[in-house]
Amino acid sequence: MTWRPRFSLRTLVVFLLLVTSGVGLWWHWEAWYCVRVLEGHGSLVNSTTFSSDGRGVLTTSYDKTARAWDATTGKCLRVLEARSCPVAISVNRARVLTKGREKTARVWDTARRECLYALKGHVDRPYSGAFSPDGSRIVTTSYDRTARIWDATTGKCLGMLKGHQDAVSSAAFSPDGGRVVTASYDGTAGIWDAMTGERLRVLDGHRGWLISAAFRSDGKRVLTAGYDRTARIWDARTGECLRVLKGHEDAVSSAAFSPDGGRIVTGSADGTGRVWDVAAGEQLYVLRAHSYAVIAAAFSPDGVRVVTGSQDRTVRIWRRRRPEWWWGVFYLWEFWLTVLFAGVFVWSVWRDRRALAATAGDGELKRGDVDR
């Protein structure tokens, strides 16, 4: 009995052309692509941001280091080794905020690589923190259910934000520095007056712990994210929920607006980053490359790049393809080429099956003749 191939060489060639065309179609459809992988951290990366000019990337990690990178080459330019875990970086004043197992946070000078002072006041471990836009103040969050505002020059406590019923996981200043938004494990976010400590609004709608909260660049919208696998857009004045962003398959650990406020990037424990349209509340693109949870995500100042940090210990820089006229031409070409190859492939498989059936029938007929 001789072996006969189930498919002809013609079918195999058409199949390879179909796969190649399909990859090209996907390449043109996927408008964001990874341009750099920054490797060097020894543990999960918990915060990422671009420098103010967009030329550098600043990251912090649970390996107790903060790193400065060249955003073009991916080269590590500077490493700050701290005795505790960094949680935030001030781009303007070259300061790093760290947290430890004790009840204090510390501020470090990245140039001199030394601790400037400790922030003492919380009655439980600090959780996270952030610098004000001008770098003059710091807000820290804690498992003690409060957030505290500090003078970034002296380390003096300026006020306490009290009202959450569980650990406060995230906090951020408004662009003008006049308000603070907090996210809490009690499932709510709060908007506070940064000077008086008065709670102005309670944002209630998530089902589960909140992990992230941020203002839009104009201060009119607030973005929150949490364990219920969603991110939500809120009116900062009324506290009304305007959009619910659904699509992630696990907790959303990070969310940030683009500089123009028209896009949102989220990071999730499902291992992906996603880019969303603010006006429609729809998912635009999925950033797939990390092997574990995406902990942090942020846009560049020009809005055409995104930086993500992950539990896989890497940082990735993504870039958006500019929609030139030839991009649409190539996309249409790849689309119709894929359709053509798919049709030819189906026809070729059908011809091979008919030929195989005819050959098998001839073989049975010959065996029948021999038996007679």
Quick structural gist:
The chain has two helices and 28 strands. It has helices at residues 9-29, 325-371; strands at residues 32-39, 45-50, 56-61, 65-70, 76-81, 85-90, 95-99, 104-109, 114-120, 126-131, 137-142, 146-151, 157-162, 168-173, 179-184, 188-193, 199-204, 210-215, 221-226, 230-235, 241-246, 252-257, 263-268, 272-277, 282-288, 294-299, 305-310, 314-320.
Mean of the pLDDT scores? 86
Which percent range describes the beta-strand content?
over 45%
> How does the major sheet shape up?
4 strands, antiparallel
Based on DSSP secondary structure assignment, what is the total number of beta strands? 28
Please give the count of helices.
2
Tell me what you see in this structure.
With 372 residues, the chain is an alpha+beta fold. The chain is 18% helix and 46% strand. The protein has two domains: 9-27 and 330-371; 32-320, YVTN repeat-like/Quinoprotein amine dehydrogenase (Methylamine Dehydrogenase, Chain H), CATH 2.130.10. It contains two helices and 28 strands. The strands form seven sheets. A four-stranded antiparallel beta sheet has the order 1-28-27-26, with no helix packed on it. Strands 2-3-4-5 form a four-stranded antiparallel beta sheet, with no helix packed on it. Strands 6-7-8-9 form a four-stranded antiparallel beta sheet, with no helix packed on it. It is elongated.
